[in-house]
Amino acid sequence: MFLFKKCGLKWWQSFVPVLNNYYKGLCANRKKEGKIMAVLEAVMLILEIPILIGQINDSLPTPVLLICILVFIICFIMLVVYDIRISIALCEIFGRSKKWLWLWIPFDSFTAAWWGLSGKFVPNRLATDKDEEAELSGIEAATAGEGLTININERTAKTAFQTNVLLKDIHMNIPKGHMVLLLGGSGAGKTTFLNAVTGYEKADAVITLNGVNIYEEYDSIKYQLGFVPQQELMRGNDTVLKTLSDAADIRLPASMSRREKDERVMEVLETFGLAMLSGTMVEKLSGGQKKRLSIALEFISDPNLFILDEPDSGLDGVVARALFEKLRSIADEGKIVIVITHTPDRVIDLFDDVIVLAKDSSRTGRLAFYGPVECARKYFARGNMEALLRTINQKEEGGEGRADEFIARFSHVVRLMEEGKSCDEAVTEVLASEREVAAS
Question: What pTM value is reported for the model?
Answer without folding.
Answer: 0.73
